[in-house]
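re: the backbone from monday

yeah here it is again, tokenized this time
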């Protein structure tokens, strides 16, 4: 990643350790102190000193590690690199600063702008102006998580004041995977302007942006869904056809789930044959924000997945894979990516499809 002139000027008077760490973070993305020392071979004391100087110069930002809140993750400050720091379009990924500047518009009951929290923790505090979308009650159908049909979607969005012309900004807890699933659903129904808030609720609250427990007043509207875009949704038959075609199939679950070493919500454990395993959380930093472009591209390049490939992604129920779909399709611009939302919950419960484990691959 190229450094901008402001960052270069600020680095001039900093010690070599700071410059080395800054270059490492620019290349690798968010890292803990332990990861920095392992990558740079600097002592813990020297690394801490270099990081302190970078913090004083406002060149790095910190956030608790998502997997272990006792650890701190360091990453390049968005302020040091400006609004175009990661090269992603604001039409897909909204910076927290930008959302903060537009809170008055989200709070104004203006159907042109709707902020939506996709969460079961909405009542514990949410971004001012955000309306609630519960992923459990709103995206459950006959006891099975699936996307709503067009009529149901029209009701859900209309009740929340969303029109077909609304700019919809979505966010959720964790790594934004629930929000990504709703984003993908809206894109499936061809909603024109939908975006994700980078970092989601965790990054927002950890960095002192405002929250409220007040539920906004919203005027219901009519919503009319467009015909679905099946190009971005894979079905069971699409996956079966892909087994004999030149299609990249990516299993984004953790390695133990992929290998069949963890209990699965299905009859069988393991993975679909011919798949590569690229874990879903590799596309985001521990603070919850998406990796910069070079780090985002790396795991797919290493797995031999190329931009022009036909790609199918899956997990257990399509949520984590929706986050990877967003990274590939919306951030990296891969043109032919589909999310298999039936995922392992469907495939692993079928009796007439092939299943592999890492042990069976080695035989």
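seq for it, each position gets an aa:
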């Amino acid at each position: 990643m190229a450094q901008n002139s402001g960052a270069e000027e600020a680095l001039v008077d900093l010690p070599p350790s700071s410059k080395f760490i800054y270059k490492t973070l620019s290349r690798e993305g968010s890292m803990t102190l332990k990861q920095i020392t392992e990558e740079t071979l600097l002592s813990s004391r020297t690394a801490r000193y270099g990081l302190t100087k970078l913090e004083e110069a406002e060149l790095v930002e910190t956030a608790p590690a998502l997997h272990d809140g006792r650890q701190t993750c360091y990453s390049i400050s968005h302020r040091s690199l400006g609004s175009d720091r990661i090269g992603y379009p604001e039409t897909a990924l909204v910076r927290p600063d930008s959302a903060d500047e537009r809170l008055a518009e989200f709070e104004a009951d203006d159907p042109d702008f709707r902020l939506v929290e996709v969460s079961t923790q909405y009542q514990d505090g949410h971004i001012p102006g955000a309306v609630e979308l519960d992923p459990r009650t709103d995206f459950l159908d006959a006891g099975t998580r699936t996307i709503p049909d067009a009529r149901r979607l029209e009701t859900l969005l209309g009740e929340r004041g969303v029109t077909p012309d609304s700019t919809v900004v979505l966010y959720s807890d964790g790594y934004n995977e629930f929000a990504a699933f709703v984003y993908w659903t809206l894109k499936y129904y061809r909603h024109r302007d939908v975006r994700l808030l980078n970092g989601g609720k965790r990054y927002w609250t950890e960095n002192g942006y405002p929250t409220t427990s007040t539920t906004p007043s919203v005027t219901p509207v009519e919503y009319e869904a467009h015909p679905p875009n099946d190009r971005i949704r894979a079905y069971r038959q699409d996956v079966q056809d892909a087994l004999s075609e030149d299609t990249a199939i990516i299993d984004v679950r953790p390695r133990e789930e992929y290998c069949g070493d963890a209990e699965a919500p299905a009859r069988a454990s393991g993975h679909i044959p011919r798949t590569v395993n690229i874990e879903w959380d590799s596309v985001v930093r521990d603070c919850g924000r998406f990796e910069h472009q070079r780090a985002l591209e790396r795991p797919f390049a290493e797995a031999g997945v190329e931009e022009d490939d036909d790609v199918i992604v899956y997990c257990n129920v399509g949520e984590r894979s929706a986050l990877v779909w967003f990274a590939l399709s919306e951030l990296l611009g891969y043109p032919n990516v589909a999310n298999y939302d039936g995922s392992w919950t469907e495939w692993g419960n079928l009796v007439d499809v092939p299943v592999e484990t890492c042990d069976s691959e080695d035989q």
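The longest strand covers residues 113-118. The radius of gyration is 21 Å.
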